[in-house]
Amino acid sequence: MAEIDLIILVCAGLTLASVFTSVVAFRAGAPLLLLFLCIGLLAGRDGLGGIVLTDRPSAFLIASAALAVILFDSGFHTSLKSYRQAAAPAITLATLGVVLTAGLLALPAHFLLGFDWPVSLLLSTSLSSTDAAALFFLLRVGGITIRDRVRSTLEVESGTNDPVAACLALTLVGVVAGQHGQGLAAVAVDLARQMGGGVLFGLIGGMAMVLVVNRVKLEAGLYPVVVMGLAIAVYAMTNLLGGSGFLAAYLAGLVAGNARLQSAGSLRRFQDGITWLAQIGMFVTLGLLARPSQFPAIALPSALLAAALIFLARPIAVFCCLAPFRFGTRERFFIAWVGLRGAVSLLLALVPVLGGVPGSDVIFEISFLVVLVSLAVQGWTVRPLARWLGLIVPEKTGLVERVEVDLPGLADREMVTYQLHPESAIAHGRPLPRWARPLLLHREGTVQYSPRRLQAGDRIYLLATPSQLPLLDKLFGKMKDEGATEASLYGDFAIGPDATLKALRESYGLPIGEEEETGTIGEIFRREYHSDLEIGDRLHLGPIDLIVRDMQEGRILSVGIALEPEEKPLAGWEKFKARLIAAIGLPEG
């Protein structure tokens, strides 16, 4: 029992040490994952801790489960907008780019280290994919703000190339160990089976998560547990059926993360914590597995191999893959540089060890040194390089936070937080529509309920549906194009309030019957809002929105028509807000 308690204490101590030293790493600008690896080295057999970890199958199990969690979370936080922006170049990098990098890196691996060609290709394959965890921390947690298309390309590539590299590594281990035929046809069939199975089971698993979360009645605290359990089950079941479990976990997260889920906010918060724990556990475990005493003998060839990867293989692969796409030279150079290697490379380097490949111990040690060089050299220079290349753009302002509202009747709305930009439409004198009125705001350390006036810098809290967010972005964030903002908020063009609904139906094919055509547009607004009518009030009529554009002494002077409305208005906002205030106990005024 004492030994078990000691093991638990050591694990807890390593985790806490990783967490608290990360504060120093943030201030120093050091890559966090490099820090976690170094903690594992210091605690390992040749370090100060003297912990001997020789159980490689258990280490592989821990790292594999952690990577499945990380990939699932990476897919869960990847929006379909990123795919629309960068799907083609990112998928090209994640497939052809991995193959090109592995092929190019096999040359120096063969001549520098003296491995035969199959083993050289196996080593280069383990180093061919970028690390989603390292990239996530550098770009998101590190606060490096670059152009959306470049960021999306890097994030989608890092999430999708790990499964491709894993498929290649597993297939090559089978070839080297004599478990597969030596022909290219056998390798291609095995790759197709793994990739196809990963896609199929990943999509099915993601849809199953959405159904379970939205249809099964559970205690609120159990939904995150169920989702994470299903993610691990999808990964394991796909592997058992011959597919790529890593690809399945990523796609399941992508499907679930882009669906409407109840308790979505609590799911994201739980996954943030569990993903941090997975990162720490995986990197510290892999650090414990390494043998620093063996590093001096292979330091020089490993450093040369890392240089070949960073300065030759990755850039050539990136420039070739991105040639058909409209990226500038500076953007392609940046994408080539931000190809950090991390835990995936170390995990794949363990595959030949478990497969009994001759010389596999050296493969792991070399991969470890290459990862250390990549994290240190590339990780520390990403921000200065982005600034030098002129790729850093001003940080977006506007939406700060989204939290689901777990109250009856409010399942389709979220509590969103904005910070009012000095160059926003509201700061420029635009009236605040009733559907965008805040419940409260935070200003200079004080909280105000039902505020009458807004000031630049105010932190605004309000309820909104996801479809309203584009309009709220234009209201509270920085205006990029005043004309476009005006059109989205108040319609593409204006008509008089005396126009009839019949005329609109005939012009725009509105789905209304003839019995509903009576009255003018102005009268319809009066029937809906009575005397409580303001500029910005909206009526949603099928494919168009009608918006009160101008008023004088309570009379509507003009009505805007939005031909492609971005939001469905909240009818009866004041009554709705009153019900909410009563429900959550906020004071009036």
From TrEMBL:
Entry-linked Pfam families: CorC_HlyC, Na_H_Exchanger
GO terms under biological process: proton transmembrane transport
Transmembrane regions listed in the UniProt entry: 6-26, 33-53, 59-76, 88-113, 119-143, 164-189, 195-213, 220-238, 273-292, 298-322, 334-356, 362-382
Localization (cell): Cell membrane
Matches recorded under Gene3D superfamilies: 1.20.1530.20
Location of the Cation/H+ exchanger transmembrane domain: 17-388
Membrane topology field: Multi-pass membrane protein
GO cellular component entries: plasma membrane
The protein, known as: Potassium/proton antiporter
Native source species: Telmatospirillum siberiense
Source taxonomy: Bacteria, Pseudomonadati, Pseudomonadota, Alphaproteobacteria, Rhodospirillales
